[in-house]
Structures are given as C-alpha cells and as structure tokens.
Amino acid sequence: MFRGLCLLFAGFCVSIVSPATASAPIPNPPPGFVDEAFASWLTGFRQEALAAGISGPVFDRAMRGVRPDPKVVDANNNQPEFVRPVWDYLASAISDTRVANGQEKLRTYPTLLGRLEERYGVDKEILVAIWGLETGYGAFMGNHRVTQALSTLAYDGRRTKFGREQLLAALKILQRGDITPEAMTGSWAGAMGHTQFIPTTYNAHAVDFNGDGKRDIWNTIGDALGSAGNYLAQSGFQTGDTWGGEVKLPRNFDYALADARVEKTMGEWAALGITGAQGGALRRDDLKARLILPAGHKGPAFLVRNNFRTILRYNNSTSYALAVNLLADRFRGKGEIVGSWPTDDRPLGRTERQELQRLLTSKGYDTGGVDGIIGGNSRKALRNWQLAQGLPADGYPTAALLARLRR
Length: 407
Ligand SMILES: [Ca+2]
Prior knowledge:
The protein has helices spanning 2-8, 10-17, 19-22, 31-51, 56-62, 70-77, 86-93, 96-108, 110-120, 124-135, 146-155, 160-176, 199-205, 221-234, 266-271, 306-314, 318-331, 350-362, 376-388, 399-406; strands at 144-145, 185-186, 244-248, 264-265, 275-276, 288-292, 301-304. With 407 residues, it is mainly α. Calcium ion is lined by residues 208, 210, 212, 214-216, 220, 223.
C-alpha cells in the first residue's frame, strides 16, 4: 500500500533522489518513504536483537506488522510549555473517587494484600496507592501494542536510545513466554500492566506471585502488586517505617535547608523549631530526613524519609512520590494536608524558566546552562540571588521572582 502511495507521488519521489536535493533534509517525507526507512531500520535492529540472544522466530512473530505509530510519534514530540501545578496534580491524584476506590480494593482483597505485605515488607496501602495512580486500579493500562510503540520510539525522535533498550527488553520478556506479543499492551512509552512497568524494570523486578509460571502483570493482580512490592523492597524500602509527613516550619526559618543535599535526623529538625503540621512534637529518632517545599516557602512543607525516596525509584517525580504517600495516608484514615497551596503563584513555563536562568547567569549566579530545567545548580543560583536580595531563599521559581529579575 505504501509503495502505491510512492507511485502516486512519483514527482516527489524523483525530486528527492535528484542530486540537487539529495543532501537536503526531508522534514516530512510521505508515508511510503517512512515505511522503507523503517523496514531498513528494522532489518538492522533484527541483527542487534539476534546478537543479544533473541531467536529469529520470536523476533519475527513479535514484530509482525509493526510500523511507526503516528499517535506514539505525536506523544513523543509533545513537550508541553507549561507544567501542571503540583496542587492541581495532587487534587486529581488524590480525588475522593480514587480514595474511595482504593479503600474498596483494600476491603476486596484483604488476604492477597496481607500476603503481599508479609512477603515484601511494603505496606498494602502503598501498593494499592501505586496501583491507583498508575492505572486507576487497572482501569487504564494503555492499549498500545508494546512492540509497535517501542519500535516507533527506537526508530526516530528524541527517545531512540530508550526505545531500543526497552524494545530489546520487551523481546526478552516475549522469548521467556510470560505473555504473547498480541497481549503485551501498554502506554505509548511502553509502560505495561496494572503497575505500568517498563520492560527493563519488569525484567529486573517482576515476580510470579501466584506461582503459575508466568509473571503476568497484565491479568494477575497478585503478580502486578507483588512486582511493585518486590521493586520497592529491592530499592531499600524499610519495613514498618513511615515515609515522613507534613510539618510546620517556625518563623524566620532558613529555607535554604530545604535542599535535596541536606539531611538531618528528626531530632535535629525538631531542634530547629519544626513541629508536626498541627503543631505537635515531631517523632524523634536517628533516621535521616530531608525537607521539601514542593511549591516554595508559601506552600506546605514535608519532612521525607528513606521510604519516600524508594517511591522516587518508581517514578522520579516529587509530586508523584507525594501523591502515592498522601493517598496511602488517606486509605489509613488520615485527613487532608493542613498547609495551603500558593495557587496564585503559577509555576513558570519552559521559556520563562530559560529566561530566569539567563538572567541569573547574567547577574553572576551560574545556573550551569540554560535548559529550562530547574535542577540543583539553578536552585542554588536562585537561592544565592534571593539571599542577596533579602528574600526567603527557597530556590523556588515564580513569576514574581522572574519579574523582579527583569528589573
Ligand atoms: Ca503468575
């Protein structure tokens, strides 16, 4: 069919092979050309897969009919200018419906969840929270054929390395026979099953909890939640410990202490005047915690411990780790957080973050580049500028700070 298209566009076919234009980039070749280039790529990748131990028949069955998926291409190209504010994200992540549905799962599967908790040492509320956030308890697992989605990423775009690595891992799963190529479905980025494992995570951590010989995270809840529990256990989850919680900071607190590199024991934090969110004493022990201010000094503050960090291994996003833990706390009957979010301080868009970095750098506060990503260097630069201005040094970029930098 695509060759036919090429014939229809015969004039174009000729023009792109003519010497005058052969070296010019072709930003949007017609589908026929994509298909041929893809077929050629696939031939090369087959050699790579066979060299990595995938059998020819397994490869050929897995890749039968696979071609670049425009929906995956679109999703891969989509780099939104604005990020969702953390309070909006948390409001939908911890909606009343999700809380109620999770509580219902806890009531429906007490035996299974108890056995999972026993085996992996991870609280059942945490496992159910992950389940709820990843797929709405199995309601939205993604219906992309994983080999096609990953082939699309591996072939072209900004995630080719990720796509190749994950596609190879997916083929290994198929070769072992845990699932068929047709039933191996997932998100556009290859996250699979109830707990949305990407193939490399699956190969490293998935388990056959019900003992039927297959690690089936698509159809067996025990396998899916057991895999999540195993992953967290292997990431250093401390059985019986808490993730941390919301706290209250004293007046004139040194906000520079809210830094990923600053760790103190709960006793040390308490000595600085930090209390529980309601003003009660902190639980004092020798375990280290760090302080996070997800929306800067005007928003809620949290002390987070080791188990918070293990959730970041699952998905390296502070908002996500907060959502999992706060949702689990709601299952346990805890109320909503006490602090209020500074909803008038909208987060900066990517272009604004780049401008902020440029302005800070031009004023002598090195952000280590202008990439629009507020990482450790940018935060440090922003803090140092805030200190010099006599402002709370929370390193949290806002539109008001950007306006002040522009002056
Ligand atoms: Ca199984």
